[in-house]
Design goal:
The complex is a heterodimer of chains A (146) and B (125). With 146 residues, chain A is mostly beta strands. Chain A has 1 helix and 7 strands. Chain B has a domain of 36 residues. Chain B is rod-shaped. Classes of the chains: A mainly beta (146), B mainly alpha (125). The interface between A and B is medium-sized, with 27 and 19 residues.
């Protein structure tokens, strides 16, 4: 009888602990800074040469996602918007730091990095959260057509 | 000296008498009365003389057959395999149910990626 009570208690504790695992979604819309008048804006025609972006998450949770080439909206054919990417996590507290690094080649070496953008989102118990991330120009297009 | 002999006899004689009584109660030592009766115990007067009465009856055969059936190994009985089958199905159902419950308690399945999104990553992907 005592063992049965203990097992029941453990089962309840397990259920309670496991109940904390609810999915939370962060929908991050990524766009390039296409304002060529700004110092960190891409010049005309440069955005179309961006081949790969790497989206990474740090802070309360971690993750990484490669965008492109020739998929997930890269290279961009028109405008400066790539699209929305959804990151799923069980975390409901802390800060989620999203970073997108842009490269003008298939290889993601530092010398081919042409842009970077970050945004931070407070992790909450809300199921779906949205954020906007702008990628600014950080380097010259030296790897294009390589 | 005389008093010692009297005391010794007073103690020994009752013990000898008790010994005889004990043998009589246990039946280890046939009494002189029974042995002097002249009837051998092996000769049972009540035993029927007719051989047909001593033959095995059909009921005896049935009992013997039942005894033979009972000696069949456990694994050759269908009941054994029925129990094994039910137990196996039960264990499989328990494992599957437990696994499904565990998965559900740990958040379940991640929701499908929206068709309008360019990609989904993170937990569950």
């Amino acid at each position: 009888m005592r063992a049965a009570r203990l097992l029941f208690g453990l089962a309840l504790a397990a259920v309670g602990a496991a109940g904390c695992h609810d999915f939370h979604y962060y929908d991050v819309t990524v766009a390039f800074n296409g304002d060529s008048t700004q110092a960190n804006g891409f010049k005309v025609g440069e955005i179309g040469n961006i081949q790969v972006c790497v989206m990474s998450v740090s802070g309360a949770d971690s993750g990484s996602f490669r965008i492109g080439p020739n998929s997930q909206g890269l290279p961009v054919t028109s405008g400066s918007l790539i699209g929305t990417f959804e990151f799923s996590t069980f975390e409901d507290s802390g800060t989620l730091n999203f970073k997108v690094e842009a490269y003008d080649a298939s290889n993601t070496t530092p010398d081919c990095k042409v842009g970077e953008g970050t945004t931070s989102v407070m992790a909450t118990a809300t199921t779906t959260n949205t954020a906007m991330l702008t990628v600014n120009r950080t380097g010259n297009f030296t790897c294009t057509n390589m | 000296m005389r008093a010692g002999i009297v005391v010794a006899l007073a103690v020994t004689l009752p013990l000898l008498g008790l010994r005889g009584v004990a043998h009589a109660d246990l039946g280890d030592e046939p009494s002189s009365k029974s042995s002097s009766g002249g009837i051998d115990q092996a000769d049972d007067a009540d035993k029927p003389k007719d051989p047909s009465l001593l033959d095995k009856k059909p009921a005896d055969a049935a009992v013997a057959q039942k005894k033979q059936v009972d000696t069949t190994p456990m694994y050759e009985k269908w009941q054994f395999w029925a129990i094994v089958g039910v137990a196996a199905v039960g264990v499989a159902a328990l494992i599957w149910g437990g696994s499904a419950l565990y998965h559900q308690l740990n958040g379940g399945d991640v929701r499908p990626c929206n068709m309008d999104f360019k990609g989904c990553f993170g937990e569950g992907h």
